[in-house]
Specification:
Chains: A mainly alpha (309), B mainly alpha (372), C alpha/beta (383)
Helix content of chain C: 40-55%
CATH superfamily of the largest domain in chain C: Response regulator
Number of helices of chain A: 11
Order of helices and strands of chain A: HHHHEEEHHHHEHHH
Shape of chain A: globular
Largest sheet of chain C: 7 strands, mixed
Helix content of chain A: over 70%
Structural class of chain C: alpha/beta
Strand content of chain A: under 5%
CATH architecture of the largest domain in chain C: 3-Layer(aba) Sandwich
Number of domains of chain A: 1
Shape of chain C: elongated
Number of strands of chain C: 15
Distance between the termini of chain C: 71 Å
Oligomer: heterotrimer
CATH topology of the largest domain in chain C: Rossmann fold
Number of domains of chain C: 2
Radius of gyration of chain A: 20 Å
Largest sheet of chain A: 2 strands, antiparallel
Order of helices and strands of chain C: HEHEEHEHEHEHEHEHEHEHEHHHEEEE
C-alpha cells in the first residue's frame, strides 16, 4: 500500500510539471490551432536563464538565502522567456497566419532547432547542475515520502492553473481570447485587437514555461539544452489527452499522464507476469492515450469537433 | 532544362530533354564522385531513399490530408524484416527480391492496423496517435531482446546481407565493364530504379480514381462521403499505400547500411520526412522530390562551413560543427516564411494561396482543418 | 524561369562544396607534410557534451605532438585533426565515414557510440584505414573480424564482469537490483554485470529500465524499493545517474548505488549533490592520478577545455597509440601503420595499452572509485 501511495505521489509531481508545460501548448492551440513545437524549448531557455542568474549570484559575494536566489532566477527567467515567446510569434508564426496549417508547424520545428543549438552555443554542451539551494525536507505519509519541494510543485501548479482559468473566464483579456479562439474575423469586428490578444497568449504561455523550466531543473537538479524536447513532447501528449485547447483539460491530461507513467513503470511488470517491464512504460502511456482518443476523439474534456458541413 | 521538360515546345524537344535527363541521372554518381568525392555518392543514395519515403508519406499527408507523425515505424518494420530474413541473426539469408516485397507488405498490414482505430480522429489528434504508434514500434524494437531475442535490442543487428544481383554483391567495390563501381554506386542505381518506379506509381495514383477520392476526402470528408466515396476504405488504403513505400525504403536501408539499430528510427526521422514534403510543396510530386533532396543535401553541405570560411575569410572563425544544425533550423524557418505554400506547390495550391477571391481564401484556410 | 534559378542555386552549392574541398592543403608553409586524422563523435544533440569531450581529448594530443614535432620517413609531419559530427545517428555516421575516407585521412579516432562505430567501421575497413574508438564498448564492434578496428576502452564484457564480481564478493551484495538506460552501452554493461553477479552468487531481485533522456526515476525506484535490495546497479551515464542518486535518497531507498565508467566523472558528483556520497563506480584502466603524466594531462586539458566529461583521456590515448604506431612504421601510410598497431605497448594516461588479437585492450585493469567528501576516491584496481 505504501508503495502504491508513493507511486501516486511520484505521478502527481511529474504530472503537475507536465500540466504546467501543457498549458502553454493548449493556450496557443486554442487560439491559433497551431502546435507550438518550440514551447518545450522556451521551457528549456527559462531553466537555463534562471540557472545562469542563480550561478552568478551564488558565485558573487552576496550571501542571500537560497530561496531568494532561486526567486531572483525565476524573476529574470520570466521576462526573458516572455520576450522570446513574443519574438517567436512575431517572426516565425505571424507571417504565416494565413498559410496552410502545416507551414507554421515546420517553422515551429525550425525555431526549436535554432533555440536548441543557440542554447548549446551559449551555455555549452554540458549538463548544468542546479545548486542545492532548496532544502529537501522529507515528510512521511502512510509510509511514503514527500518533500517540501514536491508539495510546493503540486500546489504552485494548481494555483497557476486556477489563476489562468479565472483569467480566461473572467477578465476582459480572457473574453477577448475566447472570442479570438472562436473566430478571429468576428472578434476583430467586435473591436478585439487580434494581434495583441495573440501576443498576450504567447506572453502568458512563455511566462508559464519559464516557471515550469525552473521547477523542472530545481526538482531534478539539472538543466541541459536538450531537455525541452522530451518535456515538450510529453506535455503536448498531455494536452491532447485532456482535450487540446481546454485549460482544465491540460491540467487533467498532465496529471493523468504523470500518474499513468508512474503506475505503468511500477506495475507493468507484475501485471504482465514479468513479460513486459518498465521499459514499456511509454508504450503503456501511449496505449492509454490512443485508447482514450479512440473512444473520445477530441480528448477527455475537449469539445466535440463538429464535422465540417 | 527543367523548363524544357515541363513545357516542351515540340515532341522532339521533349524527347531530347528526356534523353538528356536520363544520361545525366546515369552519369551523376561518376560526376559527383569526381567532383566532390565518394561520400557525396552516399549522400545521393540517401537522398533517393528519402525521396521514396517522402513520396510515401505524401500519399497519407499530401493527398489524403491525414497528418502522420509516426511514419518512421513503417520504415523500421521494413528494415527489421529485412534484417531478420537476411542476416546471421536468425541464420536466414533470403535474397533481396523475396525480402523487399515481404517488408513492404508487412508495413502495409501495419498501416491498416494503425489506420483502423484512428479513422474517427482528425488533425492533431491523429498526429499524436500516429506519433505514439511510431514510438511504440521503436520501443518494442529497442526492447525485444528478452525474454526471446527477436530484435537484439539496443545493440542492433549487424552483418545484414547486401543486395546480390546475378552473382554481383553490391556491398563491395568491383570492376564492372571496365568501370570501378563502389557499393555507393551500385546502390545508387538500385535506389534510382526504385525511386523512378515510386514516382511513376505516385503519378498514376494521383491521377487515378483513388487519388481523386483522397483529395476529395482531404478537401471535405462529408462531401466526399456524400458523393459515394467509401471514406473508411479509401483512408485505410492511403495508410496502407504510404506504409508500403515506407517498408520498401526500410528494406533498402537495411541492405545498404548492413547494420540497423533502433536509434535510426526515432521521432526525429518522422519529423524530418514531414518537413521534406511540407517544405517542397505538399501533395505535389516535384515539390516533394525537391524537398527530400534539399533536406538531405543541406545538412551535409553545411559541413563545409569551415572550408568556406577559410576560403572567404582566410580563417575559421566559428567551428562548423557548432553552426551546422543552427543554420539548418534557420533555413527551415526562412524557407517556410518565404514560401509558405512550399517551394514548388501544385498549381491548385498556389492559386488557393494567392487568392484574391474570398471564397478561395476561406477554402484554403480550412485545408487540413479540424474545426468548422 | 524559377527552375532555372533553382538549377543555378544547386550548381552554386555544388561548386561551393567543391571549392571548399580544394581549400585543403597537403603541405604547411614551412614544408611539413600534413597528415589528417579524423575524429568523429556527436557534436550536436543530447550527447554533444560527450562528443566534444572526445574531440577535445584527441585535439590536445594532436596539438602536443605537433608542438613536439613529428618526423616520419625523414620528413617533418604536421597532424591535422578533422572533427566531424555524426549526430549519434548511424546513417549520418556512414556518410561521415565515407567523407573522411574520401579526404584521405590516415586514421580515425571514433566514433563515440557503439551504434555509430559499428556501421562506420565497415567503411574504414574497406578503405583499410585504422579506426581506434575511445569509447565504444559493444562486443560486436571488434567481433566483426576487422583487422583495422581497435579500441582503448574495456568492452562491456570486461567491465561488466569486474563489476559483477566486485558487487557480490567485495561489497557483499546479496539482493541486487539492476537498471539500464536501454542504450547499446547501458544495456550491454548491465547484461554482463547481471551474468557475472549471478555467477558470483548474487540474487537479482529486480530488473528495471529507463531511457537516456529520462530525469524521473521515482516510479522504478519505488518499485525497486518494494523488493528490498541492498545494491542498485545502473548501466548508463551521469545525466541519469545524478538525479537517480538524488531520488534514491529522497525516497528513502537505502541500497548502495554502483555503476560503470559512464557515471565515474565530476559531472555525476555535481548533479547528484550530497546524494553522491558513498556511490561506487568503475573506470577502465588506472586512475589518472596514478599514471605517470596523468595529473599533468588533466591540468593541461582542463586549462584548455574545462573539466573532463568522461572519455577525453581515452581519446587522447587513442591518438597517442596511433602516433606511436606511425613512429614505429616510420610512415603514416595506413597499411604500414596497421601492421604496427597490434604491437602497441604504450604507457598511456588511462593505463598500459596492449591489444589482443581482436583489437580489444588486453588484460585491461578496471579501477573502482567511491565518492568520499565530494570527490572520487580510488578504492582498488582489479586486473
Amino acid at each position: 500500500m505504501d508503495i502504491f501511495i508513493q507511486q501516486l505521489i511520484n505521478g502527481l509531481v511529474l504530472g503537475s510539471i507536465y500540466a504546467l508545460v501543457a498549458l502553454g501548448y493548449t493556450m496557443v492551440y486554442g487560439i491559433l490551432e497551431l502546435i507550438n513545437f518550440a514551447h518545450g524549448e522556451v521551457t528549456m531557455i527559462g531553466a537555463m536563464v534562471a540557472l545562469a542568474v542563480i550561478g552568478a549570484i551564488a558565485g558573487s559575494a552576496l550571501d542571500l538565502p537560497g530561496l531568494l536566489v532561486v526567486l531572483a532566477g525565476v524573476l529574470v527567467a520570466i521576462p526573458a522567456c516572455m520576450l522570446l515567446g513574443f519574438t517567436i510569434e512575431k517572426v516565425a508564426y505571424r507571417p504565416l497566419r494565413r498559410a496552410p496549417r502545416l507551414a507554421p508547424l515546420i517553422t515551429a520545428i525550425g525555431v526549436s532547432i535554432v533555440l536548441q543549438n543557440s542554447a548549446m552555443l551559449i551555455w555549452g554542451r554540458q549538463y548544468v547542475s542546479f545548486p542545492p539551494l532548496i532544502p529537501q525536507n522529507s515528510h512521511e505519509i502512510l509510509g511514503a515520502h514527500i518533500t517540501d519541494l514536491q508539495i510546493f510543485i503540486i500546489l504552485l501548479s494548481t494555483l497557476i492553473m486556477a489563476g489562468l482559468w479565472l483569467l480566461v473566464q473572467q477578465s476582459t483579456l480572457g473574453r477577448a481570447m475566447r472570442a479570438t479562439a472562436q473566430s478571429k474575423e468576428v472578434a476583430a469586428l467586435m473591436g478585439v485587437n487580434v494581434d495583441r490578444v495573440i501576443s498576450a497568449t504567447f506572453l502568458i504561455g512563455s511566462a508559464l514555461a519559464a516557471i515550469a523550466g525552473v521547477m523542472v531543473s530545481a526538482y531534478y537538479g539539472l538543466a541541459h539544452y536538450y531537455m525541452g524536447f522530451m518535456l515538450g513532447l510529453k506535455a503536448f501528449s498531455a494536452a491532447v489527452l485532456g482535450g487540446i485547447g481546454n485549460i482544465a483539460g491540460a491540467m487533467l491530461g498532465g496529471l493523468l499522464l504523470g500518474v499513468i507513467e508512474a503506475l505503468g513503470a511500477g506495475y507493468i511488470g507484475d501485471l504482465t507476469g514479468g513479460f513486459l517491464g518498465s521499459h514499456y512504460q511509454d508504450v503503456f502511456a501511449f496505449f492509454v492515450l490512443i485508447l482514450v482518443l479512440v473512444f473520445r476523439p477530441s480528448g477527455l474534456l475537449g469539445e466535440r469537433v463538429a464535422s465540417r458541413a | 532544362m527543367l523548363d524544357l521538360l515541363r513545357r516542351p515546345r515540340t515532341r522532339s524537344q521533349a524527347r531530347a530533354a528526356l534523353i538528356l535527363l536520363a544520361v545525366l541521372l546515369a552519369l551523376l554518381p561518376f560526376l559527383t564522385e569526381a567532383a566532390l568525392g565518394r561520400s557525396w555518392v552516399r549522400v545521393l543514395d540517401f537522398a533517393l531513399l528519402y525521396v521514396i519515403l517522402a513520396l510515401g508519406l505524401n500519399i497519407v499527408v499530401g493527398y489524403a490530408g491525414l497528418l502522420d507523425l509516426g511514419y518512421v515505424a513503417f520504415y523500421a518494420l521494413g528494415a527489421y524484416l529485412y534484417a531478420w530474413l537476411a542476416s546471421p541473426h536468425f541464420g536466414l539469408h533470403l535474397p533481396f527480391w523475396a525480402v523487399l516485397p515481404l517488408g513492404a507488405a508487412l508495413a502495409g498490414v501495419f498501416g491498416v492496423l494503425l489506420g483502423a482505430p484512428t479513422l474517427r480522429l482528425r488533425g492533431d489528434y491523429l498526429a499524436i496517435v500516429t506519433l505514439g504508434f511510431g514510438e511504440i514500434i521503436r520501443i518494442f524494437m529497442n526492447n525485444l531482446n528478452a525474454p526471446v531475442n527477436i530484435t537484439n535490442g539496443p545493440q542492433g543487428i549487424n552483418l545484414i546481407d547486401p543486395v546480390h544481383v546475378a552473382g554481383l554483391s553490391f556491398g563491395k567495390t568491383q570492376q564492372v565493364l571496365g568501370l570501378t563501381l563502389s557499393s555507393a554506386h551500385f546502390y545508387y542505381y538500385l535506389f534510382l530504379a526504385f525511386t523512378l518506379a515510386t514516382i511513376f506509381i505516385a503519378y498514376r495514383l494521383q491521377d487515378s480514381r483513388i487519388g481523386r477520392a483522397w483529395v476529395a476526402i482531404r478537401e471535405d470528408e462529408v462531401a466526399a462521403a456524400a458523393m459515394g466515396i467509401d471514406t473508411r476504405n479509401v483512408k485505410l488504403l492511403a495508410f496502407a499505400m504510404g506504409a508500403l513505400f515506407g517498408g520498401l525504403a526500410g528494406g533498402l536501408f537495411a541492405a545498404f547500411q548492413g547494420f540497423i539499430s533502433p536509434e535510426s528510427f526515432n521521432l526525429w526521422e518522422s519529423i524530418l520526412i514531414l518537413c521534406m514534403i511540407v517544405l517542397g510543396g505538399m501533395g505535389h510530386i516535384p515539390g516533394v522530390i525537391l524537398g527530400a533532396l534539399l533536406l538531405t543535401v543541406l545538412p551535409e553541405a553545411l559541413r563545409y562551413l569551415g572550408d568556406w570560411q577559410r576560403l572567404v575569410l582566410g580563417e575559421v572563425l566559428v567551428e562548423p560543427t557548432d553552426l551546422r544544425m543552427l543554420l539548418f533550423g534557420a533555413a527551415l524557418v526562412l524557407m517556410m516564411i518565404y514560401r509558405p505554400e512550399g517551394l514548388i506547390p501544385s498549381r491548385q495550391r498556389k492559386r488557393e494561396f494567392h487568392a484574391e477571391d474570398g471564397v478561395l481564401e476561406q477554402e484554403q484556410a480550412s485545408l487540413y482543418d479540424t474545426r468548422t | 524561369m524559377r527552375s532555372a534559378h533553382l538549377v543555378g542555386t544547386i550548381l552554386t552549392l555544388g561548386l561551393a562544396i567543391g571549392l571548399g574541398g580544394c581549400g585543403q592543403k597537403t603541405e604547411t608553409a614551412d614544408g611539413a607534410q600534413v597528415v589528417r586524422v579524423g575524429s568523429v563523435a556527436p557534436l550536436t544533440g543530447p550527447q554533444a557534451h560527450l562528443g566534444k569531450d572526445n574531440e577535445n581529448g584527441a585535439r590536445l594530443a594532436v596539438e602536443e605532438i605537433n608542438a613536439r614535432g613529428l618526423t616520419l620517413g625523414g620528413r617533418p609531419v604536421r597532424l591535422e585533426l578533422i572533427g566531424e559530427d555524426d549526430q549519434a545517428d548511424p546513417k549520418t555516421a556512414t556518410i561521415v565515414a565515407q567523407k573522411l575516407v574520401d579526404s584521405g585521412v590516415a586514421a580515425v579516432i571514433g566514433h563515440l557510440n557503439s551504434g555509430t562505430t559499428i556501421p562506420a567501421s565497415k567503411y574504414y575497413h574497406d578503405a583499410n584505414i585504422p579506426q581506434i574508438s575511445p569509447s565504444a564498448t559493444a562486443i560486436a564492434y571488434t567481433a566483426q573480424g576487422y583487422r583495422n578496428a581497435f579500441r582503448v576502452m574495456a568492452n562491456d564484457e570486461q567491465q561488466g564482469r569486474v563489476l559483477g564480481e566486485y558487487a557480490v564478493r567485495t561489497m557483499g551484495a546479496r539482493r541486487i537490483a539492476i537498471i539500464d538506460d536501454r542504450t547499446a552501452y547501458g544495456q550491454g554493461l548491465a547484461d554482463e554485470f547481471e551474468k557475472a553477479a549471478r555467477a558470483a552468487g548474487g540474487e537479482v531481485v529486480a530488473r528495471e529500465y529507463t531511457h537516456d533522456r529520462a530525469t524521473d526515476f521515482t516510479a522504478i525506484l519505488t518499485s525497486i524499493k518494494g523488493k528490498n535490495p541492498d545494491l542498485v546497479f545502473f548501466g548508463g551515464m551521469d545525466p541519469q545517474a545524478g538525479p537517480m542518486a538524488q531520488q534514491m535518497k529522497r525516497l528513502g531507498l537505502a541500497a548502495r548505488l554502483l555503476g560503470g565508467d559512464g557515471m565515474q566523472n565530476l559531472n555525476f558528483i555535481k548533479l547528484a549533490g550530497d546524494a553522491a556520497e558513498g556511490v561506487t563506480a568503475s573506470s577502465p584502466g588506472l586512475p589518472l592520478e596514478a599514471m605517470p603524466g596523468g595529473p599533468d594531462f588533466k591540468r593541461r586539458f582542463e586549462a584548455k577545455y574545462g573539466p573532463i566529461q568522461v572519455y577525453a583521456p581515452y581519446a587522447y590515448d587513442a591518438v597517442m597509440v596511433l602516433v606511436e604506431a606511425m613512429r614505429r612504421a616510420d610512415s603514416h601510410e595506413p597499411a604500414k601503420v596497421l601492421a604496427e598497431l597490434p604491437k602497441t605497448d604504450l604507457q598511456g594516461v588511462t593505463g598500459h595499452i596492449r591489444f589482443d588479437a581482436k583489437g580489444d585492450t588486453e588484460g585491461g585493469a578496471v579501477t573502482l572509485y567511491q565518492v568520499k567528501n565530494g570527490a572520487w576516491a580510488m578504492l582498488e584496481t582489479v586486473k
